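User: I'm writing a tutorial on reading structure tokens. Could you give me a worked example: one chain, its sequence, then its tokens, then a sentence or two explaining what the tokens reveal?
Assistant: Sure. Here is the example chain.
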Amino acid sequence: MTDFTFISSADNEKIKLYKRLSADKKLRRKEQLFTVEGARLTADAAAEAIELHCVFFTENALKKYSEALELLFSKYNKKTFSMISDELAASLSDTQMSQGIFAICRMPKSDNAAQYAKMKLGGKYIILDNIQDPGNMGTMLRTADACGIDAIITCNCCDVYNPKTVRSAMGSLMRVNIIDDDIGNAVLNLKNAGIAVYAAVIDSSAVSLTECDFSKGGAVMIGNEGNGLPRDHSALADVPLTIKMHGTINSLNAAMAAGIIMWELSKA
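And here are its predicted structure tokens:
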């Protein structure tokens, strides 16, 4: 396949849509579309059966990433693809070293009731409460993928489809089960499934993470980067837990703390 529609104008409707989706959370939710950049992320989306609404690439990208693109060409209609100029690619890129490949993807359908119905004793879950940094969110999703966490529940968090989150998750966004809900309903559903709920807090009287019994699974609540969990939210948990630390340090970056907690969950 060698003949593609060529786009060089920033006024092209698909180009304008890509830019608006990258910048606007409300539009992403309304249209149920999000953007990805790079050969690997585009290939990951296709591998996870994410619908590619449209794909843009430069002539240089076609030469450099021909194998990845040829695989996409074999899976999708020709109308999905457009070649773009280097100048236009530079205007779309959110990275310093762009690979010249961009895609608009359709969000997978989300059914909270169906996700909750699958929860069972022995499952391992993370509840993220008011996480606001997209990079932290992406790191947490990637760690959840690596640790085999059954689902991430986001409550009043930044958008998981923010381009920075998508990039830092390194494809894990397409593989991790994500439920977006309010924290009260999330905790209620977990408890109804017989799953113990833990709250990660900074409290010397809380149970040490290393002493928690996760042999029957569990769900751990992790709070905002600067403020942690509000007291009325941590009070919803069955058990408060804390990461014991040495010296005068009393807290960790939220993504680092989440990684330690997920590792302990995965070992059980």
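What the tokens reveal: The domain at 112-267 is CATH 3.40.1280.10 (Alpha/beta knot). The chain has a mean pLDDT of 96.
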